[in-house]
Design goal:
The complex is a heterotrimer. Chain A contains 15 helices and 17 strands. By secondary structure, chain A is of the alpha+beta class. Chain C has 16 helices and eleven strands. In chain C, helix 8 runs antiparallel to helix 16 and helix 10 packs across helix 13. The chains are: A alpha+beta, B alpha+beta, C alpha/beta.
């Protein structure tokens, strides 16, 4: 019998990306820039679904959706309709959502595309459609215990594109890579900025070895997606190990507790009763418009990656990581214009910078660092003023303060100790208190490194490592000379 | 002539749930009868052949009616004033679970 | 002095402009009349006397100071209570919206106001415009001014009764499947349903979006033309509104039907049509023939399927349109502490909606549901195409089609309340125009047993001019009926 752990996992995603570059909502003139606002300030009779009001489509939203479809290698429909998806929920002002999906086999704005992941894996995209975002619910305590739900309709009516994939991903990690690539593509198009909170959310469906499909809803970011999927796989595997069946259900990702929970066993089967929205007329997209769009297509991550490698001679891996995050890639290029060792630069950005950002949970744009900062840091390393190790601290400080490397080094007296006399004094002390090590060092190179390390430690890492090396070795040589005499 | 029932009471119950209208047992029966009779009349359409005929979703033949992406300011408290139950600036909804 | 109230709008406007009578004086008369007859008629849900008198004084001031005034200067207009009015409650005759005050005007209301009309109140109707008798109202039924034991028709029965009983000079209703033509016919008035898309629906509380148009109800054809001219026109808030660039309908108020070819579909005179009604309608057709038109009896087989198709489409759309009434953002809400949202919504909707509304929501939910969509909703939309095609073909040979507006005379209150299907059958002659989106008019053409009868004309899209010409010619040449108001 196959081990449970070996069973193949299939993951499909339904990604909702807000078209964040739009100024107004999908069907009304309310400002779409709602994030910093008080609850229910970006609402009007139309997006609140007041009686008698009618939707009117935002032209830019349609254009953005077409652009996204083309970038995802999709077939764009020449004629598309809006449909109503009918179901009740407190976050939906009309108790139906205007979307483009029709279960009757209708035509979304685009279908049949794919994304090629770095490494060559193809993830097929079933369809892409425009739809309106619902409002946002919050609770007093948790969703399960709160006696009320509090509704903020600011988000209701914000334009989304929903992108649905085939179940082509085989691990949570792969799902995350897919999501990052998708985000990068949309960012390269300039239509959706994934760094805004809640701008990209997804639902996932997951099945283990063609077993029952379980859906996970309420995943608010890509980071959460990987977590939620990992949790869910573990949960399902545990059930399988106990010989239990996995029921077809929809589960809810609880971000704070980091578990998926079953909200209810459905009392009744939902039936969305899709039908064409009578208040909106069809949208016709000509092949000429499509051609125009295609020819004006901005540089996408794959091309961007190739260009970075060709133009700056940086390694593939670095180029991949950089283009995964458009802001970072742009940052790199800005730095590279004024710094002549792009490979070194790219190492710093994809290595230390990214891991700091991840640690701090920040997006590049949320930090204060500038390209000039990074260049100043690199130059201090180049001329030996600071060590690579010190530079790591400098970099972290720059992210928080936006100060130049010189300033930070000055303030924190991080300059390297290049004072040979001082180092010699310290060396005497170290030799005196580590006689064993000194003896070893006379015979083994490894023990020499220990002594150098001790010297670095004594200077809090500020000693010029090369100089420290020389001072230690010279002292050892003297000792050897003395002994042989 | 035995009149076939087009809608069962179970269906009525489900439709009432989908429509979020609470109905009593007695109403279930009443709806099943009334709806069956009305739907029987609607089945008149079975007599007409519509093979190959496209549906008319819109009688107007215009397409691509769209607006520019321009935000309009809205009076901030105009709509909160008519909300039946609020908590601060939030609309208060019944519990979810 | 009630003479003033009997005048058509066009005559009144000249008097007001010439300062023979002040708008204020005339509007006050309207309210005196309302005071006198409203108890028996019950045409209004809400009266707006204070605002109306203010507006009237404003118009008077403009006229006195020789400033220009709009084309409806000072005229009392009654507005159906499913058309949103800024700051004036708009109920749809439903408990659900009993205390709903829209923070906006419907586009047609803006247009009325900009032409200096005076809105005197909001009229009674069947709840959410679902009905043909104005009996399905949260606020009780409206009565027919020609026989108080009978219904005024519906769903715009309040608007019709208000004009017929001389409480208002003009009225707006909405016509989804005949809701303006039916009460116009039952109350001896003119009702004009414009081409779909001619009048903005922004602010009209939707019953069945793909079918309905806001429509005038007036004493005479000239007033219908005048009021249509004011409310028609493109509106960028309504995506289905058409930029037609038409000329004024009032220019087509000419007595000339020479050479006009009228098709008379036999299906409109079939089983279920009152013989007296047929007779009166045929007399009118004969009259037009005397005046130079010609008529041909034709067959339009699809008409037999129109009513079923209409009710499937209308209820489907309604089931979705009315989903928004859940009690959260506006409207009726029961105390729901302790209930989950789904149960709370179901309770609100149970109490907030009347029986007919719930019935139609259930029917529409059924017609759209999985397993039935193709047989009902989709089939009905295909039949709709056939109806359009058949009408288009007919309009190649005829300028107009003629038919009775209603198959029957105004019926007694409660007569059709027991059997919903029987009530639906009232719309059998009117729904065709809504399904096809074509314009149609109902004009008084005589009476039978002391009750009014209306004839209906239908024309190709955007040919309201033909309707106006035929209706006006008939109106000017028919002998006045001996109908008397019973109030």
């Amino acid at each position: 019998m196959q081990e449970v752990a070996d069973l193949k996992v299939r993951i499909g995603l339904e990604v909702h990306c807000q078209l964040t570059s739009l100024k107004s909502k999908l069907f009304c003139g309310c400002s779409a820039d709602y994030r910093q606002s008080e609850p229910n300030t970006h609402i009007c009779p139309v997006c609140m679904g007041l009686p008698g009001t009618l939707p009117v489509v935002n032209r830019r939203a349609v254009e953005d959706a077409v652009l996204a479809a083309l970038a995802l290698n999709m077939e764009v429909s020449s004629r598309t309709l809006f449909y109503r998806k009918n179901y009740f929920y407190p976050d939906m002002p009309k108790n139906f959502q205007i979307s483009q999906y029709d279960r009757a086999g209708g035509i979304p704005i685009a279908k049949n595309g794919y994304i090629k992941l770095d490494g060559g894996k193809i993830v097929r995209i079933t369809r892409l459609q425009l739809e309106e975002d619902p409002g946002k619910l919050s609770y007093e305590g948790t969703i399960e215990t709160s006696r009320v739900a509090l509704v903020d309709y600011n988000r209701a009516g914000v334009a989304l594109i929903e992108i649905v994939t085939e179940p082509d991903m085989n691990s949570p990690r792969e799902a995350r890579v897919f999501l990052q690539k998708l985000r990068s593509i949309l960012e390269h198009l300039g239509i959706s900025s994934g760094e805004l909170e809640g701008s990209m959310r997804c639902d996932a469906n997951i099945s283990i070895e063609s077993g029952t499909r379980v859906e996970i809803k309420n995943i608010s970011s890509f980071k959460e997606a990987e977590r939620a999927l990992n949790f869910e796989i573990t949960r399902q595997r545990n059930l399988l190990r106990k010989g239990m069946r996995i029921g077809r259900e929809t589960r809810h990702w609880d971000e704070t507790r980091r578990i998926t929970i079953s909200l209810r066993v459905k009392e009744e089967e939902e039936d969305y009763r899709y039908f064409p929205e009578p208040d909106l007329v069809p949208i016709v997209i000509t092949s000429e418009q499509i051609e125009n769009r295609k020819s004006a297509m901005p540089e996408l991550p794959d091309r961007h990656k190739e260009r970075l490698m060709a133009q700056y001679g940086i390694p593939l891996q670095n180029a991949e990581v950089l283009t995964e995050n458009k802001a970072l890639a742009e940052f790199f290029e800005e730095c590279a214009r004024k710094y002549n060792r792009p490979d070194l630069l790219s190492n710093w950005l994809v290595g230390d910078l990214l891991s700091y950002l991840y640690e701090m949970g920040l997006e590049l744009r949320e930090t204060k660092i500038t390209p000039e900062n990074v260049i100043s840091m690199l130059k201090l390393i180049d001329c030996g003023t600071i060590s690579g190790k010190i530079a790591k601290d400098v970099l972290k400080e720059m992210l928080l303060t936006g100060k130049s490397a010189e300033e930070i080094v000055e303030e924190k007296s991080m300059k390297r100790i290049a004072d040979e006399e001082y180092l010699k004094q310290l060396t005497e002390k170290i030799f005196a208190s580590n006689p064993g090590a000194v003896r070893d060092a006379l015979r083994m190179e490894k023990a020499v490194r220990f002594l150098v390390g001790q010297l670095m430690k004594e200077t809090c890492g500020k000693a010029d490592p090369q100089l420290a090396n020389i001072v230690i070795k010279e002292r050892l040589k003297r000792l050897r000379d003395e002994e042989s005499r | 002539m035995v009149r076939e029932k087009q809608v069962t009471r179970e269906q009525v119950r489900h439709l009432a749930w989908l429509s979020r209208i609470r109905i009593s047992k007695a109403e279930e029966r009443k709806y099943a009868e009334e709806m069956s009779e009305i739907l029987r009349y609607f089945r008149k359409l079975d007599d007409i052949d519509t093979t190959g005929i496209p549906p008319t979703y819109h009688v107007v033949e215009v397409v691509n009616v769209m607006r520019d992406d321009e935000p309009q300011p809205n009076p901030p408290n105009q709509l909160l004033g008519i909300v039946p139950a609020r908590k601060g600036r939030f609309v208060k909804a019944p519990r979810i679970v | 002095m009630s003479d003033l109230l009997e005048l058509p709008a066009s005559r009144l406007i000249s008097k007001i402009r010439a300062q023979e009578v002040s708008a204020e004086e005339y509007i006050s008369k309207c309210y005196e009349r309302i005071e006198k007859v409203e108890k028996r008629i019950h045409a209004f849900i809400t009266l707006t006397e204070k605002m109306a008198l203010e507006k009237a004084r404003e118009v008077d001031a403009k006229i006195r100071s020789n400033r220009s005034v709009g084309s409806l200067a000072g005229i009392a207009v009654a507005v159906k209570d499913n058309i949103c009015t800024l700051g004036v409650r708009t109920t749809c005759a439903s408990k659900m919206l009993e205390s709903f005050t829209p923070p906006y005007d419907a586009t047609v209301v803006e247009r009325l106001k900009s032409q200096d009309a005076v809105i005197i109140g909001k009229t009674n109707m069947d709840e959410f415009a679902m009905g043909s008798s104005t009996e399905h109202s949260r606020f009780g039924p409206t009565r027919n001014p020609y026989d108080l034991s009978r219904v005024p028709g519906g769903s715009s029965g309040g608007s019709a009764a208000a004009v017929a009983s001389l409480e208002a000079t003009l009225a707006l209703g909405s016509d989804t499947g005949g809701s303006v033509r039916c009460p116009a016919s039952f109350c001896n008035l003119v009702g004009l349903k414009p081409t779909y898309g001619l009048v903005s629906r922004y602010g009209l509380i939707a019953y069945a979006n793909s079918l309905e148009q806001i429509s005038p109800i007036t004493k005479c054809v000239a007033d219908a033309a005048l009021l249509t001219d004011v409310i028609a026109g493109h509106d960028n808030r309504d995506s289905t509104s058409i930029d037609a660039g038409r000329s004024s309908l009032s220019r087509h108020l000419v007595e000339n039907v020479a050479g006009m070819r009228i098709g008379v579909p036999q299906e409109f005179f079939g089983r279920g049509t009152d013989r007296d009604v047929s007779k009166v309608v045929w007399k009118a057709i004969t009259k037009l023939e005397e005046l130079g038109a010609s008529h041909t009896e034709i067959k339009l087989e699809c008409l037999d399927y129109a009513l079923a198709s209409y009710y499937i489409i209308a209820t489907s759309e309604a089931s979705s349109n009315l989903a928004r009434y859940d009690g959260l953002r506006y409207g009726f809400r029961l105390e729901d502490d302790g209930y989950d949202w789904s149960t709370a919504f179901s309770r609100n909707r149970r109490s907030g909606f009347g029986a007919e509304v719930k019935r139609r929501i259930m029917l529409g939910t059924f017609a759209l549901s999985a397993g039935y969509y193709d047989e009902y909703y989709l089939k009905a939309q295909r039949v709709r195409t056939l109806i359009r095609q058949e009408l288009e073909k007919a309009f190649k040979s005829f300028e107009l089609l003629a038919a009775p507006t209603m198959p029957i005379l105004p019926f007694r209150l409660k007569e059709k309340l027991r059997d919903p299907l029987e009530m639906y059958m009232c719309d059998v002659d009117t729904v065709v125009a809504n399904l096809a989106g074509i314009p149609a008019i109902s004009v008084p053409c005589g009476s039978s047993r002391g009750l009014p009868v209306g004839i209906q004309f239908m024309a190709p899209v955007f040919r309201e001019d033909l309707l106006i010409r035929a209706a006006y010619t008939l109106e000017q040449n028919l002998v006045q009926t001996s109908l008397k108001l019973k109030i």
